[in-house]
Amino acid sequence: MRVSTLSRPARTLGVGTLALSVGLGLLTGGLGTPQSASAAPPSSAVATTQVSSQTSVAFSQTGITVKAAASQAARSKAAANRVLTEAAKHKGKKYKFGAAGPKRFDCSGYTMYVYKKAAGKKLPHKAHLQQRYGKAVAKSNARPGDLIVIRKGTKGTHAGIYAGGGKMWASPRTGKTVTKQKIWSKNYVVRRLV
């Protein structure tokens, strides 16, 4: 607690020292000039002390909040990197309808496998159902590692993993292999899982 006097610089006193000073009447006159036992600290000193301690608590809580947010962002980025690394490991594996890896994949089987393996996230084996998972994100805020679900109307028809630069990792269709491809439709949603 910070206490100010007119004749001396501010001092930091413990609660016990402050109580003893008030009891002896030493607080308002400085330590060399005893006051009557009934003397109390001026109200401005008390107000300053309360504002100062409240400000310290507010700064302390803000610091904790900023650190927690930075820590969460770092964990999210690390998880997204794991998803992208896992997605790239399967480059060249053949498409097979209904397959969910690790040797062959259809589109939603691929995203289901990658998110489970890299981040422990469970997704259903249907692009239409996958668009309901995670947090909705605006296309302009898409980050590498986000789930992309291309739609026909409102029905999800194809799924991939955003790789940045308008591209996604995906297992496209029969006769193709897992590759990084351009997001070829404007009708898609972005979901953040990590």
TrEMBL record:
Record carries keyword NADP: no
NlpC/P60 domain: residues covered: 77-194
Alphabetic keyword roster: Hydrolase, Protease, Thiol protease
Stored InterPro entries: NLP_P60_dom (IPR000064), Papain-like_cys_pep_sf (IPR038765), Peptidase_C40 (IPR051202)
Domain of life: Bacteria
Cross-referenced Pfam families: NLPC_P60 (PF00877)
Family per record: Belongs to the peptidase C40 family.
Protein name: C40 family peptidase
